[in-house]
Amino acid sequence: MIGRETERHELVQQALRPPAVILVEGEAGIGKTRLLADALNSPELSGTTKLTANCQYLREPLPFAPFVDALRSLGHALPTNLSPVAGALRPLLPELATLLPPALEPLGEPGAERHRLFRAVRETLRAIGPAVLVLEDLHWVDSGTADLLRFLTSRMPDDLSLVLTYRGEAAHPGRTFATSVRLPPHVATAELSLAPLNQSDVRRMAAEILTTSDVSTDFAAHLHEHTMGIPFAVEELLRLMRGQRGLVRSDRRRARLTIEGLGVPAALRNALLEQLVHVPHDVRRVVSAAAVLRVPANEALIGSVAGLTSRRATNALSRAVAGALLHEHESGHYGFRHALAQHAAYGAVPSLERRRLHHRAATALEQLPGPRPYVQLAGHCQQAGRHQAWSRYAETAADRAIAVGDDASATTLLQQALSSTDLAATTRIRLAVKLGRAAVTGLDHVETVVSLRRILAEEKLPLGVRGELRYQLGLLLRNQTGAGLEGLREIAAAVPELRRRPKLAARALASLAVPTYLTGGHISDHLAWAEQATATAARLGDPLLTINALGSRAVTLMHIGDREATTAVRSLPSSPAGPDERRDLARAFNNLAHAAASTGRLSEADEFLDRSVRLLADTESAYVAGLTDSTRLLLDWERGRWQGLEQQALRMSTILADVPELEAEAVLVLGLLSLAQGRLDEAEQRLRASAEACLPQGSVPALPAAKGSLARLLLSRGDAQGAWEQVAPVLDAVREKGIWVWAAAVAPCAAAALVRTGRAAQAQALVNEFTAGVQGRQAPAATASLHSCRGVLAEHDSAYQQAAAHYRSAEAVCRAMGAPYHATRALERGARCLLADGGTGDVHLAEALSAYQALGAGWDAARCHSGLRKYGLVAPHRRGRKGYGPQLSPREQEVARLAAGGRTNREIAEVLFLSPRTVEEHVAHALRKLGVRSREVLSSDHPALATGIPVPTR
């Protein structure tokens, strides 16, 4: 395990402390499987049951197959003390039926059956006792297995350690799951990311494989350069050099010639070609057949594709396995040891031969008994040029995927089928309708949008079909692409086209009803759309349509702080019947959480979001899951739950990069955290990026929050006019929209900017307009904002006692909301007013300082500390303060940490509310005590920056 000693130790230690979830990420060929094999064979885990299974590429839509494989591997070691619910596993494990409890009576409802099956898997794993369950290649996970994983990780058996491996280089559903999984507090978690080997480790690997200790630095350097440190590529290259150990002592020139002579930088491909040259023709044929098949296959199938008789196929497979060209994955199934080898072998097959092999593969698979592997058939027919069969098999595979809730796989299959140029118009239209329906629940939207637009422009469509395709296109544009206004226009245009399809028309109206943008119609339009949708749903009596219509109406009322919102929420069904109803109700409750969070109803938002997550446990929708994760980020920020929030927001900003509005919310949270922590340049960059992503439609709450925070930053720098220019367009849009509760995030900064630029009368008019706009609304955030606005006006008039009272009112509302950061900001403002009036605001300012420090809001804490110093309430540290001696003082530590991070003296002064001259002195003292000559060599991981105690030097 060269270069993996630390990861192996951590993996074993985490597995010994169940319940635990261990994520192992790394690109193809990086050594995930080998690391697991070595760790599982460690003596420390000798008394632990090990179960392993793989998620397969091109696996047929059979949910839970990896779990079935893992449990099947137990055989007669299956525990005898199983819960009766484990009888639900009999249909999936017929070979173990005699060891399982009796079969259970059907429940008659797919969702209930699914939940019982999940419980059966959990109870079986619990009964096994101490166990490590390994699921490899999670990037190919099917949606059913992902659902089961979510269930299992939320209810982990006490003795189970779950190890999940995945590739992080692409946006697969499994990667989304792995990087966003949320675990109960008692479940330990570890994330291991396997990086390529460094040059030193490549040198050690060469020495071990070639059994020599004399590997030159030059040879190791060029070997590392041409393999990029991928262990599998290094190993495959070195296999070709056995018997040529003298070459590893080469100098720089000879080393380069040696490695380039082996075919580097296309190391693996050339290594495979080199191996194939020296094997018999039949062996090359079975390797090519296995490469074309892509997934492990039995001897008969490989032989059929290779065009060999049974005996010749057996001999060729034996030699391919003996030569490590192929590997036996499970009893009687053969394939490549790694995806890299398969890709290299496939690329080595000439294009004409490749097409012929795909044709043979399709023919052989068509003749197999039992259910056909439609996904594989579609792929082979595509590559063989059998376009009609390709589209037919892809559509059938997509239908099967949709039937088991795997919309993501269905979307991919339908996109591929529609790319054919030989389809009849009726087939293209039918596939496009299915594609639109499948794609709206996922994150893969680019090709779907292109396909729908092309068909709408090119085909002569029946009016109702055109309306449905336009509606689906509008949903994708609005929800996934960030083109919200264009999406709303498409949906609005679809409504009259759907007049003979009232259910779809009502769904389109329900989509239009929710006011998620500052633009796109007045609130009265949204309310009218909501009433039309609910009236149509009531007339038709369709449960799914009712959820959509009532949910949209409730969300709309929640967005504007209407007092009827609570009643509207109660009208939603409490126990949806099927998976579609659960998915749409989950989305409704997420949207309610989002709206409640933006209006300051945070406790309700938490309840709504928890309900949404519970509903999602038995269904699969990557888009709705992304919505809940994004809403959770916003709620955690508002609630002051900042521990680990930055890391989560960074992960979500990457995962949701293809959904601009959701990415904007993740970047917003990153910007807000950066601002609170005093990373001001970074905060400005992130807040501007978030605001830019929200335009032109003006997504709420991200745009007002980003603009309001930018204005706050500019006000702190004395740029009141710049602050006003940030918030003025938002206020104009709020007036146009008619939803004044959305001004909560910008109104106080707007008032402050106006009074500081000599426009007090305009500020008063704005506050009056804000007051009228939120009158009678149940929107605590707007109420607190209004109190702060009044405090700004009173403070400007030097009515400090009155201003302090307004800020105290804002603080009380924020505390009742459960928003500690906003409450502390109001507390600080009130304290400053009392101090300005000659009163005793020091206690309140010190309280604010402590609260900021507890939250981790370093910028705000420094401002409070500066305020206390200003009023002589905290004695400033004297230069060379007595008592610290050679140790760094707390202020010197703080300044040194910022300097080590690359901040200039001016930037440090801005963050800590000090003068640049004072910062210069602190930097000089810190450098002297640390024994370094300049800040350029100051390292952020210097131990003294954490302890204040310099490391002794000789």
Number of DSSP E strands: 8
Report strand %.
Answer: under 5%
What's the story with the biggest beta sheet? 5 strands, parallel
What fraction, in percent, of the residue positions are helical? Answer: 55-70%
Per DSSP, the total helix count is 46
Shape: globular
Going across the major beta sheet, what is the strand order? 2-3-4-1-5
Q: Please give the radius of gyration in angstroms.
A: 32 Å
Uncertain spans: 170-174, 250-257, 259-265, 875-882
Could you give the distance between the termini? 37 Å
The overall pLDDT, averaged over residues, is 86
Protein structure class: mainly alpha
Q: Explain this structure to me?
A:
The chain has 954 residues and is mainly α. The chain contains 46 helices and 8 strands. The strands form 2 sheets. The chain has a 5-stranded parallel β-sheet with strand order 2-3-4-1-5, sandwiched between helices. The chain is globular, with a radius of gyration of 32 Å. The two termini are 37 Å apart.
List descriptors.
single chain, 954 residues, mainly alpha, 46 helices, 8 strands, 64% helix, globular
